[in-house]
Fold this protein.
Amino acid sequence: MGRVRFAEGKQSAVDPIQFEVTKNALASISEEMGAALHRAAYSTNIKTRLDFSTAIFDARLRVLAQALAQPSHLGSLPHSVPNAVREYGVDHLGPGDGLIVNDPHRGAVHLNDIALISPVHTRTGELLGFVANVAHHVDVGGGAPGSLAPARDLFQEGLVVPPVRLVQAGQFVPDVMRMITANIRAPRESAGDFRAQIAANHVGARRVVELVDALGSAAFTQFCDDLIEYTARRTRAALALLPYGEFSAEDFLDGDGFTDDPIRIAATLRNGPGGVVIDLTGTAPQVRGSLNCSYSMTFAGAAFVLKTLVDQDIPVNEGFYRSFTLTVPPGTVTNARPPAAVGGGWEVAFRVAETLYRALAEALPDRVVAATKGTICNVAFGGMRPTGEYYAYYETIAGGGGARPTKDGMDGIQTHIHNTENAPVEEVELNYPFRVLRFALIRDSEGAGRFRGGLGVRRDYWFPNHRVTFSVLADRGRFAPWGLFGGGSGRNTRVIRDPDGTAQQLPIKGSVELRAGEVISVQTPGGGGYGPVSERDPDAVRRDVRVDKISTARARDVYGVAADAASPGPAGVDS
């Protein structure tokens, strides 16, 4: 039997068949962890929208496998897990223990994303590694329900948790759990979600032990080294196939929620014989509001772009991460110093990713899409149920995908690093005391072009019998999603109070108090177009009119096509 051979001429102690089986077994374990978390969670955000990720680490705290439910967590666990374990001390962790951490300035991301980290031991007590997951909790305290309203520092955003032992020998540490639940608005849901996180790690630890029992501890340790080197070699080879040169672009965020000063994102990708360097020098200094990133968030945005440009079957582990260099000056919105607020940091990381794509568009015109909706569009609110119990709710809203070199953009999806699901209206209304009056595509919200961008989404919330504090932390209100190669921009983000009456337009970063009976509409951007609009197939325009994705007026005025009115049963609505 042959051996796995590496570029330096070394050979693995594991034969190729065993190597492939073990690699896929680790990937399957991380996926099974995700399935356990998904099925056991309480909150809609985790059990339905799948706002979580899972990972496996070796004893040297190198990530071996990740379940890619949430690409935004690509940068979180590989930083937060090693930092937390080293700070807490591995010698203080025994079988069945679990650390939690959410401090963005310790390698985590925004405060709602809480990681649970558990050691994995053999049956004789030898440390094999760690399993971890991170899940977005619906509330972590702070100034507004959902903990995602504009804030002036981290402490206004919620409870900051350093590495703390939440689980000891498989059981909650009661004092720690009481302290956490006393500081959040949805203690029942969060306690259930923590239990789901514990279950996920329990499943992962058990499966890793079973794998090592079958393989042997020494062979598993060797396999970890081999897997990381194999991934690094394949990643470097794939990145070397990208065009050599320096590619730069800039884009802007609307403001930080307290001022309207644009926030510049400057991105340069350099590729050459020495490898890929992503440089964000020139990006705006950190702001006082919530539009800042931790380093981990920015790393996630950069890593996502590179992952989409290499072979799909390359694993995501330490070998992938060490195959490129990220330069992010401290004190900027992409690497903010404490105590910077970072609640809206995923908006920044999203923009980093799209700015990198924009930089690469000329060099890779057949692989880069126009700008997508470009906003996470955090929506968080809460109030008192008729039963007297406080509730908090959180979701993000889909929007238009960017037009592609050979296809239209997709309508109403969560794009790029934002890979969560849309929350079903039926489930939401079954579990929460509000109603979704409208959830529809927005007619004429696409960026025009040879291929049009996807349509944005309108979601209207009605609170029939109680007051709520309603917060939005979104972007793309001023700087709409851009098109490529002559394509037009998509429609921008809007938040409208009483949309079918006074239609009061509200800031897209802020909180508002709503009275019982009020309605608020959150409307997301469409994607940018690709190529000149004059080159669009007239039949495609007529088809969009027939299914009510664009109006007859827009077909005539923008596309220059005469078309009949839409058939009954429109797919889209006007704003």
About this structure: The CA atoms of residues 149 and 471 lie 6 Å apart. Residues 1-9, 566-570 have pLDDT under 50 and may be disordered. The longest strand covers residues 127-136. The radius of gyration is 24 Å.
